Recover the amino acids of this structure.
């Protein structure tokens, strides 16, 4: 019973961390990835994308946010297996969100 409770607690913590990362990067995704003018003159607005805002989101901001979470996990000595799984799930979310905004 104690192991089951600890396991459930760990799963809840994991899901909370994933949700926090998703919530944190969500406002950066579309403006930073799809609407970012990486090639001058090639900026297009996608049908599912929101109007580009003036906050200046770009790919560097997204990479910096993800790098912050990676460093945070390393500073807390989280197992590399868990960190890899967490980033797999976050990158899956990132790809799904971007694909949905393209469609």
């Amino acid at each position: 019973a104690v192991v089951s409770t600890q396991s459930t607690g760990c799963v809840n913590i994991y899901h909370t961390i994933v949700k926090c990362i998703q919530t944190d990067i969500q406002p950066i995704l579309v403006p930073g990835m799809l609407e970012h003018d990486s090639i001058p003159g090639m900026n297009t607005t996608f049908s599912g994308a929101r109007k580009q805002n003036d906050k200046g989101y770009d790919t560097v901001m997204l990479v910096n946010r993800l790098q912050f979470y990676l460093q945070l996990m390393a500073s807390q000595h989280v197992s590399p297996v868990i960190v890899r799984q967490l980033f797999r799930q976050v990158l899956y979310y990132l790809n799904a969100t971007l694909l949905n905004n393209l469609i």
